Model the fold of this input.
Amino acid sequence: MIYKIKMNKDDYFKISNKIISSNLVINDDEVTFEIEGGSYNILKRTSYEFKVIESLKSKVLRFFSRYGLLITGVLFLLSILYMNIYRVKKIEFNRETPINKEIEYRIESSYKKLLCFDFCSLNYKEFSKDMQKRYFEYPFINVSCKNNVISVYIANVDEANYTIDTPVVGDIVAKKDGVVDVFYVYSGKSMVAKNKYVRQGDLLIEGNSTVRGLVMATTYDKMEIEVLKEIKLEELTDSKSNYYDVSLFNMNFSVGKKESFDLYNKEESQVFNLFDFFSLKKIAETKKNAIIKTYSKDTALEEAKKRITEDFNAHMSNSLEKIIAITNIKTEETEDSYKFTFIVKKYESIGALSLKE
Done:
């Protein structure tokens, strides 16, 4: 620490050879100068009178020398409390719906990892509005966070009490042909009726200041699926290798890895992350064997139906949707594959949002 001193000129020159001073200024019979802690202690042990002139800098330095540790502790505590506001323990949904995984993925994509915790700085009000616009078939979607738990509320299609607070200006039109069964108009004017046949592009719900609604219909799709007679597949085995991946300044090290596989499935989970400079991941590798699967006409037909069902389930927008029937109307066999033509009868949402300029 540097001290600024004022003292008698004659006294200063008597002691000057014992101390190290700088920035000396002589003003008549007085001098001012600066010394560090060692010289200051020597000066204090003498009988000469002097005065310490405190500058703002020295006051600040003296303050932090006394209370710096306490201030650091308080700031650290406040930073922990502030960070805890954004820490996420889990995501909870009020009920199971086909869009849960999509919303969960969108939330988790915004996470930032620090140490072994997840942090989320989403604007939940704006995110809720975005989800309500994206999934207009639902009456109301709200995302909020309390006590480090993100809660997602998705209203039922038949709930009477819901709030429309997200204007979606446009119309809902048919994205494909179908026979209307049931419809729920949350906001807007219905242009359909039960058992009405609609074509692609027909107006289903006319929007005023806002439009929201769900129109369910029976539809028929013609689909062609090709199944190769011989397919190379990878099959998981019971052999596993668990270890840790350590990353330090973009250099990676494997710790505890005892076995390596030529073909494997890799799963990893973050254990610790310090600003991406140092991170620790838990790795689980499962060995895979390459196999060749062959299909007969009957097994190929079942595989084709399975693919149609899995694709439909992956794109469901609500729990009312289902496949009613899959009818094979044509089969062609080539040297390498079977080609099937199906008529797929579905019960599905046929509304598409058409935004107004």
Q: What stands out?
A: Residues 173 and 352 are 5 Å apart (CA to CA). The two ends are 68 Å apart (CA to CA). The first strand starts at residue 2 and ends at 8.
